[in-house]
Amino acid sequence: MHDFTLGSNNCSQVNRPSWPFFGLPQDLFEEILRHLDCVNLIHCAMACCALYDLIMTNSEFRYTIELGRQSLIDTSASGISYAIRLENLRRQRHAWSTLTWRNQFEVKTKISLEAYEMVDGHFSCIDHTGNFQLVHLPSGEDDTLPRVSETQLGLIPQDFTIDPGQDLVVFFVPVQGPLSRTEGRDVHIHLWTLSSYKPHPSAQNPLLSFFIPPDDMWANEVQMSSVQLVDDTLAVFYSTGSGWLSPRLLIWNWKLGILLTDSHKCEIPLMSWVSLS
Q1: Per-residue pLDDT tens for 54-109?
Q2: How do 233-239 and 258-262 pair as beta strands?
Q3: Minimal CA–CA distance to 232: which of 256, 261, 211?
């Protein structure tokens, strides 16, 4: 059993082992390690003192490890050094552990919240009229006041999700119509850019659709819905019954516009909704 603790190093005056691997030039050696994720970097650091010293004294590798241990994704500007990124990450971790904030801002919204999202320093919300508000919150790299923009979408989403890293917002829009136990209902999934609210250029089909069949008990009304994004995977989970009764799960590759899974067409036990992220 390895006793591995970040920051502790019992190695002193370490000489590299005589393995051929250690005969590589330093820059090539580091380039190989650069392709490893958090877990594999830790495994390498546990292999011997020489690797431990190489990894733990390199701010880029140390940053990759600490970022991975907190299940975070790097969204820093490319011009920021890894030493500064590591310092910012540790400062943020300390602030959360002690609940001490560097600054506090109050953001007021004029709209009633029908649905809202908080992702990667962006707070967004929508009301029942299709009025969408996006707030760019301050960060460790940008201390300016929050920037608020408001847009009338021209459609009435029931739910939505955002991914600022992909400049993507997804709107879940049931087509308006009367409640019926004999007629179904179409649902449109709009894939737009978060910056301009236009069809996303990476989506081969920026308007995905599916049909809700009528139900003798629950009719054709969407009672609850949840939309989740991870990379090129989009998942929609909805229910036409109260309390997640009569559920359905659909999963797309949103870039290709391909429906990967539909729980109405295959046997998937839908006892609970687990976030893709």
Answers
A1: 899 999 999 999 999 888 888 666 678 999 999 988 988 888 889 888 778 787 77
A2: unpaired
A3: 256
Asked whether 200 and 248 are in contact (CB, 8 A), the reply is no
Read off the pLDDT of residues 174-222 as tens digits, 9 standing for 90 and up: 998 888 888 889 999 999 999 999 999 999 999 999 998 887 787 788 8
228: nearest Cα among 270, 158, 157, 172: 172
Take residue 42 and report the two structure tokens written for it: 């830790």
SS3 label, residue 109: coil
- Which DSSP state fits 21? G
Whose tokens are 């997804």? That residue is 170
Q: What are phi and psi of 225, to 5 degrees?
A: -150, 155
Strands 147-152 and 122-126: unpaired
* Side chain identity at residue 98, one-letter code: T
Distance between CA atoms of 77 and 93, rounded to whole angstroms? 19
* Cβ atoms within 10 Å, residue 209: 11
User: Across-strand partners of 236?
Assistant: 227, 250
| C-beta separation of 250 from 259 below 8 A | yes
CA dist., res. 163 & res. 101, Å (int): 25
